Amino acid sequence: MATKSAISDLAFLGGPPYFSEPLHVGQPNLVEPDQFRTRINEILDRRWFTNDGTCVQEFEQRIAQYLGVAHCVAICNGTVALEILIRALGLTGEVIVPSFTFVATAHALQWQGITPVFCDIDPSTHNLNPDQIPSLITSRTSAILGVHVWGRPCDVDALGRLGEQHGLDVLFDAAHAFGCSQGGQMIGSNGRAEVFSFHATKFVNAIEGGAITTNDAQLADQLRLMRNFGFSGYDQVESVGTNGKMNEFSAAMGLTCLDSLQTLLEVNHRNDKLYRGFLSDIPGVSLIDYPATERHNRQYIVLEIDADTVGLSRDQLQKLLTAENVLARRYFYPGCHRMEPYRSLYPDAGRSLRVTEALADRVLLLPTGTCIGHDQIESVGEILSFCIDHALEIRRLL
Ligand SMILES: Cc1ncc(COP(=O)(O)O)c(C=O)c1O
């Protein structure tokens, strides 16, 4: 069935929305709700809801095993995990970080009184450009914080070398990268430590959740103390800490997702392939590539829109899709450096972030995951195609 035959059929121009229910980016995946219910009942029976419970311990063990890393410390969410790691490493002064990331990466630093120094990215990977880093290093720099954006690995070797040369810690925000590999090794062992998010929108979700993974036993002990107010025993407090504990219900959801990991991977890979098929002939719309030799979760369908070729801007396309109930999203628009407090604190940051600024105006994410299938993906492709075929007429009416 043709999705739209005349531009007056477009919902933005008065027609009915193609989809009666919204298609979301990041709708939570839950393949086996009954397994989750069983775990919840077991937790209720045990009456042990938090504080290093059975589910949290199992979640940590299974993550460490899957990633091939010695230690996994589960945390209540990825942002607090970043904050705890930053404190545990004793970072101070300035930390080099991309602006093209979710704002939590920058906030975690600023929250600890550390200045995020925004570094531009490589347009082909959307990750930190190592060549840009040396000129940003000052006597106050204490670390480089890379982000594996879309689960595509940072150039961990180059960042590691820079860290060694300049005496800086290197750590990673791996919020997008659970189930992805780098050089054949699962992401989780790079740098001093890596931080995952298990937020409801993520590939594996724990409703809200995070984890820090590391091969450094001493650091792992320190992280465990810090996430539990600094307690080493019932009455003994060793140092300042916070409440970063993951609760049992979150871990139960995380475990249930881990049980379905293979299905989640297959669904995401199927959707990615379908989108590539349906979008391949649309000029000006490109779907980002993933390294063919690495394992990847395909959690994000990331388009780059070339407005000159398409004849419509990314924002105009987003509006047209949203009206059809395809809730496509701009990530990480407008870039951390253009958000408060960074925009006011570092008003000149954008001057050296040309790639970041250009990309923040091009990227559009489409829905994927278990809530969307072949026919819906085909229809999203048809709507996009239709809009672009009629770009000139549409632009006159917008
Ligand atoms: C790149 C990145 N870093 C950090 C976070 C923060 O994680 P959380 O939402 O679990 O606090 C997120 C996601 O939400 C993210 O996408």
Q: How would the global form be characterised? A: globular
Strand order of the largest sheet: 2-10-9-6-5-3-4
Relative strand content: 5-15%
Q: What are the secondary-structure elements, in order, as H or E?
A: EHHEHEHEEHEEEEEHHHEEHHEHHEHH
The rounded distance between the terminal residues' Cα atoms is: 26 Å
Give the uncertain stretches in residue-range form.
Answer: none
Listed once per kind, the bound small molecules are: pyridoxal-5'-phosphate
The helix tally amounts to: 14
- Biggest beta sheet attributes: 7 strands, mixed
- C-alpha-based Rg, rounded: 22 Å
Helix percent reads: 25-40%
Helix-strand makeup class: alpha/beta
Mean model confidence by pLDDT: 96
Say how many strands there are: 14
What descriptive keywords fit this protein?
globular; binds pyridoxal-5'-phosphate; alpha/beta; seven-stranded mixed sheet; three-stranded antiparallel sheet; 398 residues; single chain
Characterize the structure shown:
- The protein is an alpha/beta fold and 398 residues long.
- It has helices spanning 33-46, 54-67, 78-88, 103-111, 156-166, 217-227, 248-259, 261-279, 307-310, 314-323, 342-345, 354-360, 374-389, 391-397, and strands at residues 23-24, 71-75, 94-98, 115-119, 141-147, 169-173, 181-182, 185-186, 194-197, 210-214, 285-287, 301-305, 326-327, 363-366.
- The protein has 14 helices and 14 strands.
- The model has no long low-confidence stretch (mean pLDDT 96).
- Bound molecules: pyridoxal-5'-phosphate.
- Residues 77-79, 101-102, 104-105, 147, 173, 175-176, 197, 199, 210 line the site of pyridoxal-5'-phosphate.
